[in-house]
Amino acid sequence: MIHIVFNSADKEPLQKAIELDTSLEGEIIQIKDDYAVGPLRNCYIAEGIEARKAWWQEVLAGTDLATSIDSGAVDDYKTVAEIVGRLRRNLSDVVWVWAAQNKHDVSGYYWLLHYLKEFQGRVYILYLNNLPFINEKGLIFYPQWLSEISPREFLKAKKLARLITPSEFEIDPDEWKRLCDENKGVRVLEGGKKLSLADYDFYDADLSKFITDDWQKASRVINQFLSKSKHTTGDVYVLWRLKEQVKADMLEMRSELRNTKDFEIRRKVAIHNSVQEQDI
User: Fold this and answer.
1) What count of Cα atoms within 13 Å lies in the side-chain half-sphere of residue 133?
2) What φ, ψ does residue 130 adopt, rounded to 5°?
3) Residue 20 belongs to what H/E stretch?
4) Please, which contacts does 162-169 make with residues 24 or more away whose CB atoms are closer than 8 Å?
5) Which three-class secondary structure state does DSSP give residue 241?
6) What is the crossing angle of helices 235-247 and 46-60, to 10°?
7) Are 150 and 12 in contact, with CB atoms under 8 Å apart?
8) Burial class (CB in 10 A: 0-12, 13-18, 19+), 225
9) pTM to 2 decimals?
10) Which residues are CB-contacts of 140 (< 8 A; sequence separation ≥ 6)?
11) Are the CB atoms for 125 and 172 separated by under 8 Å?
12) d(CA 254, CA 13)
């Protein structure tokens, strides 16, 4: 059995659930890229793969993660090739794809399905779509991420496993191809498995709510955005959007432009107001 997850935080509770129920015994493999953001056109051939790699190099430039692209630490194409090879060699092996109701997991599911189509009848999906679980305080909640579920609740979740249907193997890749061809920068989950598209600046308006006329650490702005906004994304993407606004002369920055700990930002309008006051 192969368990596929889309977040590193999901691996630990799933591993603990396997220890509680040996019928789940199998290898846990993570698809690491975030397919909810970035270019996707021709993402299954060399041209698109290289374009996406170049985009991530730009996004991660100056951060501690910058070397992960060139080093091969994130190489989903290699990972999925190994999965496919294993399934071809071992005809009794099956795949369980674990996904919660968030755009990151759903985008990863769509991307992955392209490679699993030849294994129909051996690929299961566990999609936690608006399903209630019990938290550590004994209260009902609706998890957006698998990592929010306790190991014992994972045992409850396993009952949701079902085969991906032939219809899904036909319709879902077509829908993903349409999204890829439009090549927008952001995917947003509307509900179920339905994704809508937005431009790269989709999060900028909400992000701007936490930027003031006073200097503050970029890390503070990012943390406020991630904790208070309805629609959020990964912190490195948010950091990149701040950098892009600085480059576009929309924000003022001081200190070295590297990562969230190394620079401060404020609204550009603060400079304009200062100039106006001097004129008066």
Assistant:
1) 25
2) 55, 40
3) helix 11-20
4) 162/124, 162/125, 162/126, 163/121, 163/123, 163/124, 163/125, 164/97, 164/113, 164/116, 164/120, 164/123, 164/124, 164/125, 166/120, 168/113, 169/113, 169/117, 169/120
5) helix
6) 80
7) no
8) buried
9) 0.89
10) 132, 133, 134
11) no
12) 41
Q: Residue 31: which residues within 8 A CB-CB, separation 6 or more?
A: 4, 5, 6, 76, 79, 80, 108, 111, 112
Q: How many residues does the chain have?
A: 280
The rounded radius of gyration (Å) of the Cα atoms in the chain is 21
Structure tokens given for 188? 């947003």
Pairing of strands 216-217, 140-141: unpaired
How far apart (Å, rounded) are the C-alpha atoms in residues 218 and 220?
Answer: 5
Tens-place pLDDT, residues 41-85 = 999 999 999 999 999 999 988 777 767 666 667 899 999 999 999
Bridge-partner residues for 254, per DSSP?
264
User: What pLDDT is recorded for position 275?
Assistant: 43
Instruction: Collapse the DSSP code of 188 into the 3-class scheme (helix H, G, I; strand E, B; otherwise coil) and give the result.
Output: strand
Per the structure block, which two tokens stand in for 180? 């890829």
Nearest to 81 by CA among 47, 49, 56: 49
Q: Which residues of 59-69 are buried (b: 16+ CB within 10 A; e: fewer)?
A: bbeebeebebb
Sequence letter at residue 228: K
Which residue from 248, 247, 253, 245 is spatially nearest to 270, judged by alpha carbons?
Answer: 253
* Burial of residue 217 (number of CB atoms within 10 Å: 0-12, 13-18, 19+): middle
